[in-house]
């Protein structure tokens, strides 16, 4: 009996030792693979950094330099301020998307170089750290590529957070990416983390002022957050919205700006990523009226290209649009998020505009289509009014360093082949 017990104990020990060896081998293999992927990612990012370094700075006859006045970054001019809105650049920063990242960098550089804007505002989803498409969880890589690109071009810019910039599984939080953008080495980045008592990161204001000291326009950058109702990975497409604390902050800022402005409430524009529910309300009203304008809705330009809900706003509404109507300052809202939508319409007196997206990566197959890709140009007039227009990247006036890719420009957005796999088809 004792002999059998000893043999049994030896067998158990041998099995345990074998399992331990297998486990150690698996851990070693995972470490080797992870290390190899990290090295490959570093090489790919370095290659795209090299491409950025090869670009020329934008040539201005006389570039506007913002100043700090009354605690706000301020552009002083008696002329029109030229703003370029970019959105959903989706720089993955990994080995699986290095070519697509280069294409996005190439497109952004070409449009900025041609248009020579005084300010670029990027309304979210700069980074796209989705590992099965990008090959990395490192969301700082995409943010760094964009920041380094704008430094090389020498153009002032304002980042805004989107839902993909800081995923639950990505390496860096919004707070950490906020600190990254706020570094002194990024001279052209005007990002501010914002008031700690207000929800989100990157709620801040940039003013436009004339030489007489009057604020002619206030530009509100805001964090529309990511997901809600426990949908931490965004798998159920339960998007968040502008929170009550931000609405209160917006009103308080307007009150402060009114005092600075000798009692005159400045006109304003708002920039954030996820559209308000009113974007959907407006489009549905227009659609239900046989795609004709109504008393509330007047479509200025553009199309929809998303399937299902068409407008993927939050289903929540904390009253931001109504507060805007009440206060009477904000003339226009600019967002992104829905890459195939690029319409601009007037709803109850406020202009609601989707920026043309840049995305080559996130929507499956979108690199092969071109009607949705481009930028949105906004002209802020000296009298406080503004105009905007969408510009398609594939126009001859945009001349990138790397030859433009061949894309399909004749398709209708809502054809089955462009139905994306980021939003559900309902």
Explain what this protein looks like in three dimensions.
By secondary structure, this protein is α/β, with parallel strands linked by helices. It is built from eight helices and 14 strands. The chain has a nine-stranded mixed β-sheet, with helices on one face. The protein has a five-stranded mixed β-sheet with strand order 5-4-3-13-14, covered by helices on one side. A hairpin with a 5-residue loop joins strand 13 and strand 14. Helix 1 packs parallel to helix 2 (98-115), helix 1 packs parallel to helix 4 and helix 2 packs parallel to helix 4. The longest helix has 52 residues, at 2-53. The chain is globular and about 85 Å long. The N and C termini lie far apart (69 Å). Mean pLDDT is 91; it is low at 413-426.
Which regions contain 5 or more consecutive residues with pLDDT less than 50?
413-426
Strand content: 15-25%
Report the mean per-residue pLDDT as an integer: 91
Number of helices: 8
**SS class:** alpha/beta
Radius of gyration: 24 Å
Fraction of helical residues: 25-40%
């Amino acid at each position: 009996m004792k002999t059998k017990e000893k043999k049994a104990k030896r067998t158990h020990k041998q099995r345990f030792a074998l399992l331990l060896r297998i486990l150690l081998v698996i851990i070693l293999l995972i470490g080797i693979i992870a290390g190899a992927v990290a090295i490959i990612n570093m090489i790919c990012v370095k290659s795209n950094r090299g491409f950025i370094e090869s670009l020329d700075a934008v040539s201005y006859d006389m570039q506007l330099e913002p100043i700090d006045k009354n605690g706000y970054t301020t552009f002083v001019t008696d002329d029109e301020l030229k703003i370029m809105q970019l959105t959903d650049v989706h720089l993955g920063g990994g080995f699986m998307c290095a070519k697509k990242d280069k294409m996005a960098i190439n497109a952004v550089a070409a449009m900025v170089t041609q248009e020579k804007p005084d300010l670029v505002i990027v309304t979210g989803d700069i980074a796209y750290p989705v590992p099965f498409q990008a090959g990395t969880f490192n969301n700082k890589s995409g943010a760094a590529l964009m920041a380094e690109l704008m430094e090389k071009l020498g153009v002032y810019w304002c980042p805004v957070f989107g839902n993909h910039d800081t995923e639950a599984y990505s390496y860096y939080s919004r707070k950490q990416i906020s600190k990254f953008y706020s570094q002194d080495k990024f001279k052209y980045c005007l990002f501010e983390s914002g008031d700690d008592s207000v929800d989100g990161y990157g709620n801040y204001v940039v003013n436009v002022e004339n030489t007489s000291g009057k604020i002619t326009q206030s530009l509100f950058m805001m964090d529309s957050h990511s997901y809600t109702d426990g949908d931490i990975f965004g798998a159920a497409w339960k998007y968040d919205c502008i929170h009550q604390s931000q609405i209160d902050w917006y009103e308080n800022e307007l009150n402060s700006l009114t005092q600075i402005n000798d009692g005159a409430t400045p006109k304003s524009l708002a920039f954030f990523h996820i559209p308000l529910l009113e974007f959907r309300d407006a489009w549905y009203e227009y659609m239900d009226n046989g795609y004709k304008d109504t008393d509330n809705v007047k479509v200025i330009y553009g199309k929809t290209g998303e399937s299902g809900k068409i407008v993927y706003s939050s289903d929540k509404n904390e009253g931001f649009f109504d507060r805007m109507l009440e206060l009477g300052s904000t003339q226009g809202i600019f967002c992104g998020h829905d890459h195939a939508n690029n319409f601009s319409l007037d709803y109850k007196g406020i202009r609601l505009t989707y920026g043309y997206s840049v995305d080559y990566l996130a929507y499956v197959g979108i690199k092969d289509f071109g009607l949705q890709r481009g930028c949105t140009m906004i002209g802020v007039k000296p009298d406080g009014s503004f105009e905007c227009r969408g510009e398609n990247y594939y126009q001859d006036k945009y001349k990138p360093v790397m030859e433009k890719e061949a894309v399909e420009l004749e398709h209708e957005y809502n054809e089955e082949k462009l139905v994306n796999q980021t939003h559900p088809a309902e």
